[in-house]
Write a structure and sequence with these properties.
Four copies of one chain form a homotetramer.
Chain A lengths: L5 H17 L6 H7 L4 H7 L3 H25 L5 H18 L3 H8 L7 H23 L8 H20 L7 H15 L4
The structure holds a DNA duplex.
DNA sequence: TATGAATGAGTCTTCATTCAT
DNA sequence: AATGAATGAAGACTCATTCAT
């Protein structure tokens, strides 16, 4: 009844953890096989090769990340600050549902092994947030920095904070999240 | 009379560029040798092995980064905001003097190949900024977030911005720097 | 009431084609399964393993080749030249009834995977023709060359000609066959 | 002083023997390395990969074979039968100077791993003999068979005879060679 | 009986490292 | 001191074979 075979799922999550922890190159296929409790050859029944595996993993998570952000924003039309709140909430939701996934995305988004398709998926994510910022700048509520700088500040901070949480240098509380959200809003918004 | 032999320097800078661009695992010793215009065996006269090489490279640049930050702060006692300005300036100076070095530090700071010593060097860097933030919190000018969150926001943003610059997604101007500094100050400081 | 199951036949003929075309090692069991329109596991119901498969295939075709040659010769007692004609005809008949089989035999007759039994089957084939040549030498109509040399000339030529035909470098006509038969007879027979 | 490094030669001759004996697919790189008394990695200093190795081996020997045949023919203008004698002598010389090489060429000339260049080299060899046959047909001394059939008979026989010799089914004597030459001439020439 | 998902032994190939020159 | 040829351990990947269904 499962649409995705159970072994494929095991390979996927083992990969995610290992790639996030050690990086693409330092992760060996036998490692993945062992962690997924699967024979080494089995991986190749589901993925053409190691590169296919990272790329599928990357795209799936980037797309889901984008979904989380979009879905928060889609169903309402309050003020811009609320919009930001929903985006932030989407990011938080994603990280909660997919531990390590953000770290994986961060450390692999520049990899030479990424296909054009993977790069485009990431680009779409960036584009979405850019559009949101552009709108904010038009409304005069977002700082007059290049969009890429705004993205870098938002994502750079958020990812680093989450890496700290996942490495237990920081503990995940509502208070922390609220604080970080406010801090980032301050970083991005025009001071009144 | 040169303390550091010229070949060693060549190996060092070739390594930095390659590690920053491709990562530790994807960089081969022959690659380094070729870019440094040196025989492959020569590297081993100056470094015990590949791990020694990254670690020495990492420590040297982390230490220099710390120096840049410290030196800005050391010779004055103006207000706290000025202190932050000096730190930021130190960070900028470092990236200007050592192109790619910040990218290298960022992408390698979680590497499994880092020795305890390297980790401590990085820790010292973090510690220094933490101390600065703690002081600011005592003075009531810095947000009441965990120090590690503050660090994550400062470094995460800054490194991401610099990666964008080095990949030509953003062009380095004084205006940009001023803007980013203000943004980060807003992120870290208590709103009045 | 079929003595040989239909699936086994499918496996046999798929194997023959693939082995002839690509060789034993370059042919994979999944390939055979696919071409035979059979599950990979099914092959193992009929053959112990890949080596069994080639060996059975080899023996069956070598034996049938021998039969073709023998049957031509058996039922008559005309002159020696007629005997040669019947042998040649038998060889032609075999290649017509079993396309690719001669190519398969040729390219696999030295394989390390052949069992003693397979080698003996091939030996028996050779022996039969040797006997025929020995008789001819006794009668003074066949050249005084070592039997193995005569075999080499007859089989070597014939197989090469058939390979050319099967690869479309040569088209199969009665004229060609007559010409080749005459040529080979000239090669083997004592010139008057 | 050696133009070709000694290790490369060792790899070459070990390869030739193994490929001739077992075939391309059944020969492993470690096997070659061991027989050449060389580390496995060393092979890759001299040859890009296994396919490069066979192809270089193939081309070199095919070219040398052609040379042997051509050189015999080049420096004289006696009768056509003498020309054939020189070709045959060239073939014999080649097999003497390069044991196993002819077997290697024979069993690998249809390989899927051969590059276009290798195929062309083989084609050139065939072409040369074809031209010789065509000339003979014009003079009315060679049978009126398709050139490819003549080639198949000449090469098929010769290669098979040599395989027998190298497998000790036949012992190499002048008498044998003279006998085979006469036999093949009878196969190819128009009977008077 | 038939299947094909799963396995892991065995390939080719790369690359950190050594060492004779 | 400097080199780069040589090595072999280790990684990605294939495929004969098994076995639960």
């Amino acid at each position: 009844m499962e649409s995705t075979p159970t072994k494929q799922k095991a390979i996927f999550s083992a990969s995610l953890l290992l790639f996030a922890e050690r990086g693409f190159d330092a992760t060996t296929m036998p490692m993945i096989a062992e962690n997924a409790k699967v024979g080494a050859g089995t991986i190749y029944r589901y993925f053409k090769n190691k590169e296919s595996l990272v790329n599928e993993l990357f795209q799936q998570h980037v797309n889901e990340f984008l979904q989380c952000i979009e879905s928060g924003l889609a169903n309402e039309r309050d003020g811009y600050r609320d919009g930001f709140h929903h985006i932030f909430e989407g990011m938080v939701t994603f990280t909660k549902n997919h531990p390590r996934a953000l770290g994986f995305i961060k450390t692999h988004s520049q990899g030479a092994f990424l296909t054009e398709e993977s790069r485009l998926a990431y680009q779409k994510l960036v584009e979405f947030v850019c559009t949101f910022f552009r709108e904010g700048q038009k409304q005069g509520v977002i700082r007059n920095l290049p969009e890429n700088a705004l993205i870098a500040i938002l994502f750079g901070s958020f990812m680093e904070v989450y890496e700290m949480i996942e490495n237990n240098y920081l503990s995940l509380t509502d208070e922390l999240l609220t604080g970080v959200e406010e801090s980032l809003w301050a970083a991005l918004s025009r001071q009144s």
